[in-house]
Design brief:
The protein is mainly beta and 124 residues long. Helix content is 10%, strand content 47%. The strands form two sheets. Strands 1-6-4-3-7-8 form a six-stranded antiparallel barrel. A two-stranded antiparallel ribbon has the order 2-5. The longest helix has 7 residues. It is globular and about 45 Å long. Pfam families: GTP_EFTU_D3 (PF03143). GO terms for molecular function: GTP binding; translation elongation factor activity.
Length: 124
């Protein structure tokens, strides 16, 4: 739970992140993830479906990258906030840190992004 004065807590659903995809030896995935990968994001006080948009098209297990993260709903966040990505809400496959918080974007589903293309969608 976050507690703060009015307008003291930032909420958003769009971030620039640093992400590390755990290797299979570290208990992570055997296969790579592609840009557009959607899974549950767990933070200290909330969990939410999120979609990754990688600067390269693919991220292999054991690799680190900078990427964008889009959530369906606005959540309370701050810069340097850590998070994890879990498959099936059980197995941690990645760890990340929010590096930059952008103004929220309006979307009803991740299909909105797919239909318009990520770059076109965020420029609206």
């Amino acid at each position: 739970m976050w507690l703060g004065a009015v307008d003291a807590v930032t909420t958003s659903n769009f971030f620039k992140i640093e992400l590390y995809l755990l290797s299979e030896k570290e208990g992570g995935r055997r296969l790579a993830v592609h840009s557009g990968y959607t899974e549950k994001i767990f933070c200290s006080t909330w969990d939410q479906a999120g979609r990754l948009h990688l600067e390269s098209d693919i991220l292999m297990p054991g690799e680190h990258c900078t990427a964008y993260l889009v959530l369906l709903k606005r959540m309370p966040v701050k810069q340097s906030l850590p998070f994890t990505i879990r498959e099936s809400s059980k197995k941690t496959i990645a760890r990340g840190i929010i590096r930059e918080v952008f103004p929220p974007i309006n979307l009803d589903s991740f299909k909105d992004i797919k239909d318009k293309g990520f770059e076109n969608f965020i420029r609206q």
